[in-house]
Design brief:
seven-stranded antiparallel β-sheet
Length: 567
């Protein structure tokens, strides 16, 4: 049996990450849709022949922990009928866990006829033939959400299968962009195949496999040591989504986290069962989210590999919104995951006070506009909105940052939006007084204000008004989200969710995301200068400074120490 020395192992470790970065660059530069090349709603991975993770790159981190599942589905379905040059795609919500927009492309990698790995690229397709263009807000079953694919061979030994390409074209409103984005995913896989081949040509497949096993074992050992260093105990948290998208009742999310020796157990018993609306989520993506939350707190500086997370087990009730089965709707699967992540981190913060982190604004806060016009044909603009993160044990929370599950996902730049779509971005600013007060305060949310330049339709999904970002250890809650729609006739509406709403030309849509919860300690312990600095920057009003922090700001901007609560 071949072995790999420590130097070779490190070369392989860094090389596969470099391969993944090249794959990502290829995907982003080749994609046709702004949500991929600007928004980065995608992820790539390089895996061994068993589907174990080796290399990954920036993108949507929520995807990374479930791509290996897709590879195993392909292997189970096709068995030995996998050949060099093949490409498979899938998007089934119950297999890979996400909504149908997230299409995973997978290609085998061979070395002299020997299967040595897989390349994969997942990307959001803007339209998958659902009941509404882009994302539907009111689906109650999977059949309303678009084309659903289990493992499907779409390229056979390098030759595209025409029937499947035609089938895709017939099931989307955006034929050119859809086929173009698929081509970009295939290009990413081919890039990974070519780059890995360069390494194999130098060290051989046997040494490569030995190095991979070393990488996996090192990850296992590091995880065991990290969990063993945490105090044993059990912690529970719960929170509520505003609703499921079709009803008004709040949706419960519950989590109990137990540390016992080298094992970490996550139990979701008590969480709502499957709901009528589309916030259900497949089990594989639920486990991917828990891996992400785990990685946020435990060994965050180490890359994820096939040896990671073996110390964590998940108890997932059969009847649970996070264990969706047919025909549950899953379009907004990630909404509950954001809350679940905050609950996990808050539980672990009790066990690891030196890394404690308050809750963040927690949802993707999606804003979409679409229509059909003679110039553009069918067009769809969809983007997430940034917000505030929770204060930490040793510092303030980040402001205007995308939510945890989305990682590298970004909003669409104003210049791109206004060039491609009949929408003008009037304002993009920090939302004053939105951060949760604390000794280390939370981060601030943002305001984005849009004007419709022609008759359009709007689709909006904002969450976390019933369970906004909470503080820890005396820190206070952040402000919740807010949407205002001002129509040309003077009518003004306030809503957090909107499905395919007609927005006449001149309509103004103002979206405000929430701020992060406060961090460790009482807000009355926050440094005078820190409060004064936030006031000077327009992030905290003088009124809020006095109300929340007990700090009185004089007319010249200085702190009136005599009138302020002593520190």
């Amino acid at each position: 049996m071949s072995t790999a020395d420590p130097i070779t192992t490190e070369v392989v470790r860094n090389f596969v990450i470099s391969c993944a970065e090249d794959m990502n660059a290829s995907l982003w530069r080749s994609a046709h849709s702004a949500i991929i090349y600007e928004g980065k709603d995608s992820a790539v991975a390089l895996m061994d022949e068993h589907g174990n993770m080796l290399g990954q790159s920036t993108g949507v981190p929520l995807f990374i922990g479930a791509i290996d599942v897709c590879v195993r589905h392909v292997k189970d379905y096709y068995g030995d009928d996998i050949h060099e040059g093949d490409i498979f795609i899938m998007n089934d919500s119950y297999m890979q866990g996400t909504h149908l927009h997230d299409v995973t492309a997978i290609g085998p990698i061979f070395d002299d006829g020997d299967l040595v790995g897989f390349g994969a690229a997942r990307a959001h397709w803007n339209d998958i033939g659902a009941m509404d263009p882009g994302s539907t807000m009111s689906s109650t079953n999977i059949y309303q959400e678009g084309l659903r694919l289990g493992p499907t061979r779409i390229v056979s030994q390098g030759k595209p299968i025409r029937e499947w390409y035609d089938h895709l074209k017939l099931n989307t409103r955006l034929e050119g962009a859809t086929i173009g984005d698929l081509g970009a995913q295939i290009a990413a896989i081919r890039t990974g195949e070519r780059r890995l081949g360069q390494l194999l040509g130098k060290i051989g497949a046997d040494t490569y496999r030995a190095a991979c096993q070393n990488i996996f074992e090192q990850a296992r050992q590091l995880d065991r040591e990290a969990i063993a260093a945490i105090q044993d105990g059990s912690w529970s948290r719960e929170g509520y989504l505003d609703n499921d998208g079709v009803g008004d009742a709040p949706v419960k999310v519950a989590l109990t986290l137990t540390v016992k020796g080298e094992e970490l157990i996550v139990d979701l018993t008590g969480t709502s069962g499957p709901v009528a609306g589309s916030v259900n989520c497949g089990a594989s993506q639920t486990e991917s989210l828990l891996r992400l939350a785990y990685k946020t707190m435990i060994s965050p500086d180490r890359a994820i590999t096939g040896g990671s997370f073996e110390t964590m087990s998940v108890v997932l009730p059969e009847e649970c919104m996070f264990n969706a089965g047919e025909p549950a709707a899953c379009e907004w699967y990630f909404t509950g995951l954001g809350l679940l992540a905050d609950l996990f981190i808050s539980c672990l913060s009790e066990a690891m006070p030196e890394r404690s982190t308050a809750a963040h604004y927690g949802d993707s806060m999606v804003v979409g506009f679409f229509s059909v016009d003679p110039k553009r044909g069918q067009w769809i603009s969809i983007e997430p909105t940034a917000g505030g993160w929770g204060g930490r044990a040793d510092s303030d929370g980040e402001s205007a940052l995308i939510n945890l599950v989305n990682g590298g996902f970004r909003n669409i730049p104003a210049e791109v939006m206004e060039t491609k779509f009949p929408v003008r971005l009037e304002e993009f600013s920090m939302r004053a007084d939105s951060a949760g007060p604390g000794k280390n305060r939370g981060g601030f949310g943002v305001t984005r204000r849009y004007t419709m330049l022609q008759d359009n339709f709007g689709a909006i999904w904002f969450e976390r008004s019933k369970t906004p970002a909470w503080g820890l250890n005396g820190g206070k809650d952040g402000l919740g989200p807010e949407i205002t729609v001002a129509f040309p006739d003077g009518t003004v509406e306030h809503t957090l969710k909107m499905r395919a709403r007609a927005l006449p030309a001149g309509t103004v849509v103002e979206c405000k995301t929430g701020g992060g919860g406060g961090g460790n300690g009482d807000p009355m312990e926050r440094d005078f200068d820190a409060v004064a600095r936030d006031v000077a920057r327009g992030l905290v009003s003088p009124t809020a400074a006095q109300r929340d922090y007990g700090v009185v700001i004089a007319e010249d901007g200085s702190v009136d120490t005599e009138a302020s609560v002593p520190r």
